[in-house]
Structure formats: structure tokens, C-alpha cells
Amino acid sequence: MKRRDFLASAAALSLFVTDAWAARKPAKAAAGKHKGAAGKAGKSARKVASRNDRHKGKISYKPALPVAHTADDSVIERPPQGTTAAKLPPVKAAEPPNEWRTFEITTTVTLKNKSGPSKLWLPLPLNQDTLYQRTLGHTWSGNQANASMRRLPDGNLEVFYCEWPDSSEARLQLTTLVTTADRHFDVTKRTVAPERDDILHRNLQASQLIPNDGLAFQLGERILGRIKDPVAQAKAIYEWVVDNTIYDPTLPGCGSGDVRQQLIQGQYGGRSADINGLFVSICRAIGIPARCVYGMRTGSSRLFRSLGLSSDDATRGHHVRAEFYVPGYGWIPVDPSDVRRAVSMEVLSDRDSKLISLKKILFGVWEMNWIAFNLGSDVVLPGKSTSMPFLLLPQLESGSRYDAGNSANLQYTIKTRQVAL
């Protein structure tokens, strides 16, 4: 449009608005003349009431609610309207996967340089069937005096327990069959039955090393900004954790899982218990139930070589994953740690197209070349007064001494292979 045409149009619009306003004023005045005394009295009363309300400090609007919830005021207690957590659809029966793989896991334990009585605990796969994992059975052999499977109170945690009166030649072999199916989160399906309230509240609470307030909440608020939808909130946290943590392969095991120390130091990362624990901590702090899932790799990976086993030896294959809960969707799987592991072990750039694809995949997908052991935190073994952050490695008690994992007194190997049933 030419400048003179624009000015002419603006002038015409101004005249139109002025004429319309002038025509409106006489009509308004005429209407005012026909108002009765009762109308005037009502108007005066409203003015007085309005002045009184202002003097009393009343306001005519409600302040906006904060975007972030807290662990005590969670998404499950007050779902935000118009988001994925509100107005749940009718519940439908979940459809089981079609493709399953079965793994045979054999753990061999020998005790060295020991004499006298000893007790041994080995973590077992999840004792409840899920849509992605089913335990088919256990067999064992050795020279133990007695052996049994025991369930600990926290996180559906089941262990194999045995003891020897004299452990100088102690040996044990435990074989477990587990079948798994890849796990996928479908954003188009919100038909999952609600989780038990006690489980949801447990996964909003802080543990010894995973806080749910303070620095974790402040970090969560900064990450979320104006994001209100719980699934989008969790994805923002996931992406922040991926972009701001460092995977350190030199640390032993799965790392310490000490998220509190990460937050205090402002240095984020470690191994799987540390990185995925950070994701869980921030989710809990902003009111989204979340939990670490402790397990072990059992086979090769179709995604990246470093995200699976390269042989049948799974002794050092322990790995921690994470999941969060949104009403209607249930527990949604994530693994920001494995994104960082791929960067470190495959020597990838953060802008590599393969890494960008992996980042998208691991929000909502678990490749089940891995089995879940348990969901427990702050685990206390029977007869022991202190707790451990989580239980993944074999635990040996000899007198007043405890050994975890391979040590001078406890030697173990884990072999795994895929079998056909």
C-alpha cells in the first residue's frame, strides 16, 4: 500500500470511529433520562459498596496460580485444567506387546579368604508381571545350608537369601529366566487405570540422596518457565538434564546416586544413578511422581553399541533407568543417562543427527535389552541398622563386616544369553 493510500485509510477509520461514538452518546443520554429513582438509588448503592470494598482491601480478581506444583501439592492432587492430566477418559484394558525375548541370567558366587558363618543377599528381577517384563522362574545349586526368596517392604523388592555355617568353601549358582518386550509411550492413548495413592505419594517423597524441595524446586521452576502441561514439564526437565549433565565412565558401578551433592555443588552428572536420579529429584520437587528403576543390561542394543552388552558377560552391566507418572498415561519411561553415555562412549557431538534422534527416542522408550530388579530406595537389609541408597549388587555379611559387589572376600560373575522357549 502506498503511503498516501495508508494515510487516507487511517483518516477514514478515525472519522468512522468518531461518528459512531457521537451517535452512541445521545442514545446513552436518552436511556439515562428514562431511569427511575430506584435505578439511581441502586447505582448510588453500588458506588458506596465499591468504595467500601476498596477501603476494606478487597479485590475483584484472583491471583494466578503458580505453574510449578510441589511435592506436597502435586499434579495428582490438583491436575491443571486443559492439560494431559485433566478429564481422564474411560479406562481400557492395556494391550500386551506381541514380541518378547527371553533371557537366561546365571549368577555364580564364591567366597574367598573366609571362615565362619556368612549370609548372602542377591537382588532379583521384579516380582510382579508388567507389560514389559515377566519373571518366569529361578533355580539354584551350591553348598549353602538353606536358601529362600524374601520380599523386602520397599518398592516390591525381592532378594535371594542364603547362608553358610562355614563359608571357607562357599559357592552358589542362581539361574533366572526373564522375558521382556520393548516399552513405548504413546501420547495418543490416555486410558491407563490410576495408580494406587500410596505408591504415588511414596514417589513424591524425598529419600536419603534424592531431595524434593529447596534447590531441586528452584531448579525446576527455572526449567519450566510458563509450561503447564505435566508431560511437557517432564520433557523440559528431561531435555535440561540431557543438555546439562556429563557422563563419567570412570566412576564405579552406577555412581553414588547422590543428587543432593550435585545440587549443592552445581555440578551435574556422574553415572546412571546420578543422572537419572537428578531427573527424578526435579520431577518430585515440582509435584510429578517419579522414581528410579534399578536393573541390569542383558543383551546387545539396536540403538548404540555402548547401550548394550558386547558379550555374554553382564557382571558390570548394572544400569539405572527412570520413569514419571501422569494420570491417564501411567508410568512413562525415560533414560537421559543413556543419551549422555552415548555422547561419552561413542564420541559424538551434541549436534550429531544420531544423537538428536536418540534424545527423542529415550523420552518414552525403553529398549528392553535390560531387566528391572526393583524400585527400592534407602534399603535396609534384615538385621542391619543402616540403610543403603539402593540395592543392585550382591551383599555379603560375615560377622560384623559387609561386602558389596566384587571384593577380596566376595567374587561373582553374571552371564546372560537369549534363549528360545
Question: What is the gist of this entry?
Answer:
The strands form five sheets. Strands 4-5-2-15-16 form a five-stranded antiparallel beta sheet, with no helix packed on it. The chain has a four-stranded antiparallel beta sheet with strand order 3-6-1-17, with no helix packed on it. The protein has a four-stranded antiparallel beta sheet with strand order 12-11-10-14. The protein has nine helices and 17 strands. Helix content is 29%, strand content 25%.
List the helices and strands and how they pair.
Elements: H1 3-33, H2 37-56, E1 101-111, E2 118-123, E3 133-142, E4 146-152, E5 157-164, E6 171-180, E7 183-184, H3 197-202, H4 215-224, H5 230-244, E8 246-247, H6 259-265, E9 269-270, H7 272-285, E10 290-297, E11 318-326, E12 330-334, H8 336-345, H9 353-361, E13 365-366, E14 370-374, E15 395-398, E16 401-404, E17 410-419
Parallel strand pairs: 8-9
Antiparallel strand pairs: 1-6, 1-17, 2-5, 2-15, 3-6, 4-5, 7-13, 10-11, 10-14, 11-12, 15-16
Helix pairs in contact: 4-7, 5-7, 5-8
Explain what you see.
The protein has 421 residues and is α+β, with helices and mostly antiparallel strands. It folds into three domains: 24-63; 101-179 and 378-419, Sandwich (Immunoglobulin-like); 183-367, C8orf32 fold (Roll), CATH 3.10.620. 29% of the residues lie in helices and 25% in strands. It has nine helices and 17 strands. The protein has helices at residues 3-33, 37-56, 197-202, 215-224, 230-244, 259-265, 272-285, 336-345, 353-361; strands at 101-111, 118-123, 133-142, 146-152, 157-164, 171-180, 183-184, 246-247, 269-270, 290-297, 318-326, 330-334, 365-366, 370-374, 395-398, 401-404, 410-419. The strands form five sheets. Strands 4-5-2-15-16 form a five-stranded antiparallel sheet, with no helix packed on it. A four-stranded antiparallel sheet has the order 3-6-1-17, with no helix packed on it. A hairpin with a 3-residue loop joins strand 11 and strand 12 (330-334). Helix 4 packs across helix 7 (272-285). Mean pLDDT is 84; it is low at 1-63.
